Description:
The chain is of the alpha+beta class. It folds into two domains: about 5-165; about 175-205, no CATH class. The protein has helices spanning about 1-40, 120-130; strands at about 40-50, 55-65, 75, 80-85, 90, 95-100, 105-115, 135-145, 155-165, 175-180, 195-200, 205. The strands form three sheets. Strands 3, 4, 5, 6, 8 and 9 form a six-stranded antiparallel β-sheet that branches. It has a four-stranded mixed β-sheet with strand order 7-2-1-12. The relative contact order is 0.16.
Amino acid sequence: MRRDLFIILCILLVLLILCLGVLLVLYVIIPAIVRSAIAKAQLGFRSVNIEQIQNNSFRLRAQLELSHTGFIPATIVAPLIINVDNVGIITNNESIAISSGFSNSTVVPIDCPFVVSDMAAFHNFTRSLIFESDVVWHLQAETTIRPISRHMLSYSKIPFNKEVTLSALNGLPNVSIDSISLSRSNAHQLLVDLSIKIANPSVFSIDVGT
Length: 210
C-alpha cells in the first residue's frame, strides 16, 4: 500500500514539475525571447509618400521593412499604432506575419491618415527633411505578438521602440532647368514657361500639386 502511494506521489510530482515547466516556458521564456527578438529587429522604410496635404494632416503611404526578427515566426496582431516623435501616429490595421530567419525581411504596406498632434514638432521635422542630409524618426509602440502559430498565446505590451535614420532632401541641391520658353511673351508682358528637374535623394516623396 505504501509502495503504491509512493508511486502515485512520484507521478503527481512529475506531473507538477511538467506543469511548472510548461508554465515557465509559456509565461517566462517565450515572452523573454519575443521581447529580445523585437528589441533586436531592424526597421526601415522602402518608400514614404505624403499626399492629400491639409492644414494639420496628410495621407501617408509607406512601405516599412522589418528585418533581423529572429528564428521564431510570429504575428504582430492588429492594430499596430506607432507614435512618431510625438508628432502624430501611424496606424496599421492588418496583422503582420513575420517569417523566421535573420536573412528574411517582412514588408509592411501602410496607408493611413496622419494627423499632426504637435505642429511645432512637425515644423522642426519638415525643416530637417528639406535642409538636412538625413532625418531621424523615433518610433514608439506597444505591440501584441503571437509567436509560432495562431494556436499560441498572445503576449501584449511588448515594447516596439525604433530609431530610424532616413535620407532627407538636403536643400534639394540637384535642381536643373529642363526646358524654358518665352514664346507666350509680348511687348507688354513677359511669360515664362519653365520646367525644372529635381533629383530626389530620399525615400520621401511629397505630392506638392501644380
